[in-house]
Predict the structure.
Amino acid sequence: MAASSSSPVLSLRGISKHFGAVAALTEVDLDVSAGEVLALVGDNGAGKSTLVKVLAGVHRPDAGTVTFDDRPVTIASPADAHALGIATVFQDLALCENLNIVENLFLGRELRRARLDEVAMEIRSWELLRQLSAKIPSVRVPVAALSGGQRQTVAIARSLLGDPRVIILDEPTAALGVAQTAEVLHLIERLRDRGLGVIMISHNMEDVRAVADRVAVLRLGRNNGVFATADVSSEDIVAAIVGATGTALPRRPNRREEPADD
Ligand SMILES: Nc1ncnc2c1ncn2[C@@H]1O[C@H](COP(=O)(O)OP(=O)(O)OP(=O)(O)O)[C@@H](O)[C@H]1O
Ligand SMILES: [Mg+2]
């Protein structure tokens, strides 16, 4: 693992977001550094997707600050997130089944020289997939013919077109079998090796342990601990997720001593 000690590329402080009476996020802090995989975990409804959508420019937070490269920034739209260099791969991937890989990668941002530059797009597609060491036989096959792992790879490749600094993956292995999961986890390691800050949402402790340098736990919309993966057991992470603090579980020195407020 290549944990980075540099200052965070992306920092959230005190982020809150309400939906009517529902407090989806309350004063959440989060940091991710370049060359780091941060797992974001929490039970259903803990606020993970809401936090992702704040970073993707889908939701405006009610309070709190976001800094990127130590500069305060406002992410008011997906275009703002893109311009900053924050890419998000949502869980549903948003690929078009009937289009081939090149068409999916460049959908809405086709390269043109008077007319569509098919050759340039195909070359760029191969470059991207090669960087990710993707095992894909042809860039002209429709996405419908690809496996789940290959689709995830195409969605990630698509998000890399804007040369992001931070990439957020919402449950990248949720629908995948063993071999495909391993493929996607390797791909995440390659993103880290390229110096990206990676935020990976996951419910799977094995995946978290396999690739994450640190784990941030959300519970009921609040921070409930940040752990170095090497120093923490899966049981401790699960305890923080479900709120079973103060039980007989060993306390770790790097756990944030924040009481759950329920
Ligand atoms: N657009 C919305 N309108 C109203 N309430 C919402 C909206 N989006 C999320 N919420 C609520 O905010 C809370 C956090 O939801 P969120 O989807 O962020 O959780 P999550 O951690 O992603 O859960 P899961 O693991 O089930 O995906 C939940 O109580 C949810 O019902
Ligand atoms: Mg969610």
About this structure: Helices lie at 48-55, 78-84, 101-105, 118-131, 148-160, 178-193, 205-211, 234-242. The chain has eight helices and twelve strands.
